[in-house]
Every structure is written in structure tokens, then in C-alpha cells.
Amino acid sequence: MTDFISYVIRGIPFGCVFALVAVGLVLTYRTSGVFNLAFGAQAFVSAAVYYDTRVRHEWPIILSFLLAVVVVGPLVGFILDRFIFRYMRSASELSRLVAALGLLVAIPQMVQLWFGQSPSFGVVGIWPSSQGSNFAVYHLGDYSLNGDQVATLIATFIVGVGLTAMFRYSSIGLRMRAVVESPRMTELQGINADRIGTFAWMLSSLIAGLAGVLLAPLFAQVNSNNFTILIVAALAAAAFGKLSSIPLTLLGGVGLGVLGGILAGYLPTNSVLAQGLRPSLPFVVLFLLLIFSPALRRRREVKDPLAGVDPPPPGLAAIERSPALTWSTRIFGLIVGLGVIAFVMNDRYWLLLAIQALIFATIFLSYTVITGMAGQISLCQATFAAIGAFTTAQLVNAYDIPVMLTIVIGAVVAAVVGGLFSIPVLRLGGIYLALATFAFALMFESILVPLDWVGGGATPLKVPRPVIGPVDFGSDRAFFFLCLVILIAVSFLVILVRGGATGRFLDALRGSEIAAQSIGINPSRARIVAFALSAGIAGLGGGLFATQVGFAQPADFAYFYSLFFVVLVVTLGSRTVEGAINAAIGFIVVQELLKRIGLSASWEPIFFGLGAITYAKNPEGILEAQKRRSNAFVQRQFNRFKNTTTDPVPAEPSST
Amino acid sequence: MSVTPVPLLSVTEIVKRFAGITALSDVSLRVETGEAVGLIGPNGAGKTTLFNCLLGILRPDGGRVQLDGHDITGWPVYRRARSGFGRTFQRIELFAGMTVVEHFLVAARARRGDGRLWKDVVGLDRPRPQDREEAERTLELLGLTDVANRSVEALSLGRGRLVEVGRALMTEPKLLLLDEPSSGLDRSETAELTETLEVVRRERGTAILLVEHDVEMVQRFATRLYVLDFGTLIAEGPTRSVMSDPAVRRAYLGESGEGEPGVGEAV
Mind listing the pLDDT tens digit for each residue in A296-324? Predict the structure, then answer.
């Protein structure tokens, strides 16, 4: 019994930090409709500032605390609101999610550029004590708490009571609730919705910063990963509070921390499964809550009742183009493509990069299906690629099966897993689907990958290159053509499905789900097919990637890539096959450029992460938008050229 | 020996409660093949609730819905659509980004059932020539030929509603359920829509169930009426006799039964 209570007490401070971040999350969600996935990253910013000033520069506690929590925290929130989310208030919930994802990818990398990757041990908490916060011990009967834990408890209590009172009794709380309902309608009442939004962002960012500084001493060192994962625990707590109740959210956070403490105390430490289960508790809880909580399931996306005044999105550039121009660009593309092939055949280094680009383009086509066609954001595509890669590797190592066949089996296994996974989560839709896929990716990574029969344990699994009949793809040149053929085949698959019944049904469902059902379209079926197809394509790409590297290594399919790839593909264009290919080329070329210039590789996620913010303005991708603009220009020139050659009379001068 | 023909749609004693409030109590109605039936009632009478129970959006707490003698009470929305329900929406629901003719083609495709992925892959599931001809005919019937290739966002509300009618017709429904088709339309647009619906009913033999606010339109269009008030049917029968029923007048005009002209006197 004493053991049990001490485990509970050990869990409470962690629970308080979860609760604080969760409350910040609920606060911004309720006032700006943004699910700020970057809150964990913001907590990291404050923690890093605190560590840098307190430990590295030995500032007094109070100054470090004020700078990190009271200045930097709200400042980050102010910047995010002022320069990004303010302009997204009437954007779709999905594009706000993409922007938040971009920040989740970009912010930790930006901090790391300044903070450095070097180990940062010896964090000192904020509890003012002559022995140092960690060593100040306070006794509660048989149990004890240290200064950091006491500070966390007190801070959480103050925030919880203060926020509840504010929402319930103050006029700014009332106005905040109105802004969530519809910023436009609130403005019609003579309230400055912008100012309310900024206030909410600064307040919630202050809380995130506070959580960061409180959390830092609870871990051995300040590490961005601890903070990114923090967001999942916070999401679980927020889901427990049904995304609206602050007391329930606090309770959910503390409960999660306590549960973690109990698990840590009682689970055996020698089993791989138990080892994985402990840190992934928040993911499991979030996943289960999303699937089983009816309140979340029924909740539709927050939609501005006045959103109807927004102009509809423009059509794809291809629609506005004349066939003659289309053919000329295609021929031009073919010539450039052949030129590139001729070049890389004679350059070993670029050949390797070109192969990687082909494989990534294949993986990115899975986003064309799930995001471009089905309109869903999936944060577990790297997981499906991993399933493909590990299946390939396990089969190759266990049985005497041709490698190419194992890659195909890997794709099928990924498709089946994707299809089965989609059944319980499909009814969630939109942002909750994205969160469930994120939880799934993290669960897979921390529970399944360490197992011998999945990730292969400590030594990575070897995967040889395929041999088909007399052709050995061990040489890079031959392998290049194999990858090219596979990419072309998958591209045609995607184009055919998009133009066929499945694609048209998905278009209709994206346009209006209820109307699509009213003409006899089964929404679940269409989406399960899309999910399975997308997972299969990712699995195929994963298998190819493993044979290219020669190993199936868990690090190549880390959850971070799932986030980064979404951001990358969505920024460059998720609706077209060209978009996926452009994203792959961009990914490889930017990486290479940074290496040549001598800049840190962190710049790539920063670059694309911030680029994702443009999604709200160009949901079809910036390249597609750019293409439409240049298309209009080229088409004009083209028409003029056609007119002068066929008709001597010049085109009518415009009247204005 | 008399044969009682099975009605196209038969609704028996539907009950629907929301958290203690009985929105519908024992409502029964039937629609025969090719018939034009109106369902009217003051605001909050339960018209939309009944409509949603028919379409499968809400599940009734009691009673049965039968189509052609088959019990479809527990069927999902899309399955009802495939077996002969077509509908339009009060607040227009079109597929953003598609042209008018694309709406019709996707509906024709949906009529044939689920898309099979392998058929897409071998290119078998493209629109067929007969689908295109059918779409042409529907465009003409509804007077939408000139906007066939226009994106739906560019259409007026009245024409948008016609696109909804056409999209429903492309699934070859036996029964067309119209949810307040005149809402948002002006007088002349409403008159035009009524005329078009009459043509559809005559030429295609489609039965039409109209949930409507605009009493004038209902009187002009429906041959039989059901009147709902506080979740119960207060009157049913041929349009003319229902409109002069004192209970209906009371429901619409309050206890006095005086004042507003039109109800009961028009036609």
C-alpha cells in the first residue's frame, strides 16, 4: 500500500505538467479553433531559454523564470497569432491543422539551431531553496516530495482555479467563448475578435512556457523529444475534458500522470513489451479515448456560420489549360526527364540521389490518395512504410523468397493493416482522424518496433537488392530503372483510381458527405479503400527504401518523418501526381543544397514546416498555385502566338 | 377477393424522442407510386424529424418504414438511396468543385453500386455513353443545358436546387423527397420549380413527397396532404378538404382562426 501511494505521488507532478499543456491546448482551441500541436514545441522553447540562462549563464532563478515564462512564452504566442493564425480564422480546420503541424516540425529544429545538440544535464528547477530545488525535500507523513514537485503542484493549482474563474465570471472569458463560435459574428457585435484571439494565444503560450520550465527538471536533460511527445499526453487529457471543460482536462492530465506512475512501479522492467508500454501510455489512452468517447465522435468540426461568404477554392491549373499547351509541356517534361536520366547514369553520387527521389516520390503518392483524394490528413504514413520494410526484411531473412515478391507482400500487409486500422477511426473524420493516426504511429514505434519479430531487435535486418530472372538490381543503374518503372506504375494506378468510380465518389464525399450518401455512395467503404490503397503504396515505397539502403532500420521510419512528409507534400501539392514527384525532388535537392552550402540539415524541416502555413491560402499546394499563375501567362503568350500565325489581325486591345 | 396493392412508401406509427421530448408520436403516412404528396405543419411540428427518420439520418424509437413492402427502418442512408430514395436539401448541398454535368454523372455511377477498385484500375468504371445521354436528357428536362459545364459555385440558388433535383433523378428514384424546396427562392422561381417538378412527376412517374412551408406551393402541387402539429398528425386527405379543415386552420393561425388570408381560401 505504501508502495502504491508513493507511485501515485511520483506520478502527480508529471500529471500536472500534462494538465497544464492540455489546458493551454483547450484554451487556444476554444478561442481560435486551432489545435495547436506545437504547444509541446513551445514548452521546449521556454525550457531551453530557462536552461540556457539559469545553468549556462548562471542567472538568478527569478530572472530566468521571468524571461522564459513571462516574456518568451507569450511572445511566441503573440508571434504565432499575429503572423499566422489570425489570418486562418476562416480557413478550414484541416488547413489550421496543417499549419500547426508545420510549426511542430519547424520550432524544435529552430530552437536546436540556437540551443545546440550537446547534452544539457543538471537542470535546476524554480523552487527557491538554498540546497537546490531537487534536494529540498518535504515530508508528508511517510511520503516525500522535492521542491520541483511542490512547485509543479502549486503552479497547476493556481492556473486551474484562475482559468476556470476567468471563463466563468469575467467578461473576457465570455467574449472568448463568443469568438470561438464565430469571429465574424462577434465582430458584428462590436467586439475586437483579433484582440481577444491575441490575448488567448499569449495566455495559453504563457501556460505552455510554464509547463516547459516545470517539466525540465523532472527529466535528466532538456531534450526536444520529451517535449514533442508531451503534446500527445496533453491531447489525451484534453480529449478527456471533451475539449471544453477545464476542470475535467486538469483531472485527465493528473490522472494520466498517476496512471503512468503506477505502471512504472508495477510493470516488470525486463520485458521489451512492458518497456515499450510504459512511455506509450499517453498514446494508448489518446487512441482509446478517440475511438470510444461518443462525445468526441459526434462533435463535428467547428464551422463558422458565416463561412459561406468566402470564395470557393480555384480549380486545378490543368483545367484551365488548352490541350495544345498541355502536350507541349508534357513533351518538354519528357525531354528534361530523359536529360536527367542521361546525366545521373554517368554520376554515381547523383544516381543515388535520383534513386532516393524516385522512392520518396512513390511514398509521397500515398499522400496523393489519402490527402488529395480522400481529404484526410494521416500522420502514420511512415509507419505504413515501416510495415512494408519490416515485412520485406523479416520474410527475406526467414524464408527463401525472391526479394521483389517480399516487397509486394510487404505492400499488401501494409494495405491490410491500413484498411483494418481505418475501420474504427474513420467515423472520426478531420482532425480527430489525424490525431488517431498520430497516436497509432507513436504506439507502433514504441511498442511494436522494439520487438524481435517486427524491428529485428538490436541489430538492423539486412535486405538485399532484388533479382528478377537474369537481371540483378544490385547495380545502382539497374535499380534506378526498377524504381522508375515502379513509380510510373504507381502513378498510373493513382491516376486511374482518381478518374474512376472510387475517385469520383471520394470527390463527392469531400464536397458534401450527406449529399453523397443521398445518391447511394457508401462513405465508409470509399474511405477504407482509400486508406488501404494509400497504406499499400507507402508500404511498397518502404520496402523499396529498405532494399536501397540494404537494411530495414527503425530510425529511417521514425514518427518524425510522418509529420515532416505531410508538411512537405501538402506544401508542394497533395492533389496531383506531379505534386508528389515535386515534393520528392524538393526533399532531395534541398537536402543536398544545404549540405553543399554548409548549413545544418535542420533548415530543411524549418523551411518546409514554415512553408506549410501557406496551405491555408493554397490548399492545392504552392507549386500548383504558382503553376496556375504562370499558366495564365504562358497561355496568353501561346494564344497570341497562335493568333499571329493563323490570323494576321492582332488580338483585340483591351478596353481598360 | 380484393387485392390490396402494396404502397410505394408506407410509414407506420413512427415514434421519435429527444431527451424526454416526444418529437413524433405514432405518425403514419403512405405514398403511392407516381403520387404527389405534401407534408406541412407550423415551425417545430416535427416535419424535418420525420423526414430524417424516413431517410435514415435519424433512427426512430418505434415504428416502421417500408419501401415497396420491404422493411427499411434500420437501413443506412446510402442503401435507401440505392433502393429508390432521391432527395434534395433545404440548405443546398452540392459537391464543391464539380460541374453540373459531373454531378449527374457521379450520381449515375453511384446508382450502379460500389466502385470496385480493380475496375478503376483497368479503366472499366468510367462514365458510359448511356450515362451521358441520360445526363443530357436530365439537363434538358430541368433547363440546365446552358450551364452543364459550369462549376456549381457559379449558379444561383434556384438553379442549384434544380441541380439537386437532377442529381437525385439520375439515380432513378421511385420516390423523390424534397425538403423545403422553395426556401430561399422568390415567387417566380418557386412557380418555375413547381412546374418542373410537375413535369418530372408526369414524364418519369416519380412519386414526390414534399415537405414545405410555402402553403401556396403545396396547394398547387400536391394532390394529398398530411398536416403535422406538435409531433402528431392532425389531418390528412385530399388537398382541398385538408386546407379547409378547422383543426389545420387553428394550427396555422392560432386559436382564433382568423386573420391571415390564403390558407384554405386559395386555389
Answer: 655 444 445 455 445 445 544 445 556 77
Residue pair B123/A500 in contact by the 8 Å Cβ criterion: yes
Among the listed residues A300, A313, A213, the one whose alpha carbon sits nearest the alpha carbon of residue A13: A213
Distance from C-alpha of A404 to C-alpha of B43, rounded to nearest angstrom: 66
Q: Are residues B37 and B115 in the same domain?
A: no
Q: Which three cell numbers stand for residue A541?
A: 515505397
Round to whole Å and give the CA distance between A648 and A571.
44
Q: Can you give the residue range of the structural domain that contains B105?
A: 98-150
DSSP string, B181-214: TTTT--HHHHHHHHHHHHHHHHHH--EEEEE-S-
Q: How far is B158 from chain A (nearest CA, A)?
A: 17
For residues A526 and A516, give the distance between their C-alpha atoms in angstroms, rounded to a whole number. 11
Please indicate, yes or no, whether residues B108 and B181 belong to a single structural domain of this protein: no
B20 in contact with A, Cβ within 8 Å: no
The answer to whether residues B79 and B195 belong to one domain is yes
CA pair distance A138, A140, nearest whole angstrom: 7
Please answer whether residues B2 and B174 qualify as being in contact, where contact means their C-beta atoms are separated by less than 8 angstroms: no
- CA–CA separation, A201 and A75 (whole Å): 9
CB atoms within 10 A of CB B228: 25
Smallest CA–CA distance from B54 into chain A, residue: A518
Question: DSSP 3-state assignment of B37?
Answer: strand
* pLDDT single digits (tens) A83-99: 888 777 667 777 788 88
* pLDDT score of A140: 67
Co-location of B178 and B252 in the same domain:
yes
State how far the Cα of A141 lies from the Cα of A163, in Å rounded to an integer: 32
**A499 in contact with B at a CB cutoff of 8 Å?**
yes
Looking at beta carbons, which residues of chain B come within 8 Å of A520? 78-79, 81-82, 110-111, 113, 171
Nearest residue to B172 via CA among B86, B60, B59: B86
- In order of their start, the domains of chain A are 2-266 (1.10.3470), 358-561 (no CATH)
Instruction: Give the total number of structural domains in chain B.
Output: 2
- What SS3 state is found at A130? coil
Residues near B49 by Cβ (< 8 Å), separated by ≥ 6?
A: B16, B23, B24, B58, B231
CATH number at residue B47: 3.40.50.300
Classify residue B174: in a domain, yes or no. Answer: yes
Biggest alpha carbon–alpha carbon distance for chain A:
100
Interface residue of A412, A518, A534 to substitute, partner B, most B CBs within 10 Å: A518
Which of B57, B95, B119 is the closest to A507 by Cβ?
Answer: B95
Q: Closest Cα of chain A to B113: distance in Å?
A: 7
Is residue B33 in some structural domain? yes
Same domain, B56 and B125: no
| Chain-centroid distance, C-alpha A347 | 35
B83 within some domain? yes
DSSP letter at B151? Answer: B
* Pair (B102, B221) in one structural domain: no
Beta bridge partners of B87: B177
B89, A519: Cβ pair inside 8 Å? no
Q: Are both B23 and B57 inside the same structural domain?
A: yes
Residue B187 domain-assigned (yes or no): yes
Residues B121 and B202 in one domain: no
How far does B88 lie from chain A, in Å, by closest CA?
8
Residue of B nearest to A310 (CA): B153
Q: Flag if A312 and B55 touch (Cβ within 8 Å).
A: no
Mutate to test the interface with A, among B125, B126, B152, B163 (most CBs of A within 10 A): B125
Contact at 8 Å (CB) between A544 and A362? Answer: yes
**Cα distance between residue B96 and residue B80, in whole Å:** 24
Kindly report, residue by residue over A139-152, the tens digit of the pLDDT.
Answer: 666 667 777 788 88
> In the prediction, which pLDDT does A6 show?
80
Task: Give the minimum alpha-carbon distance from A258 to chain B in angstroms, rounded to a whole number.
Answer: 36
ipTM, interface predicted TM-score of the complex: 0.88
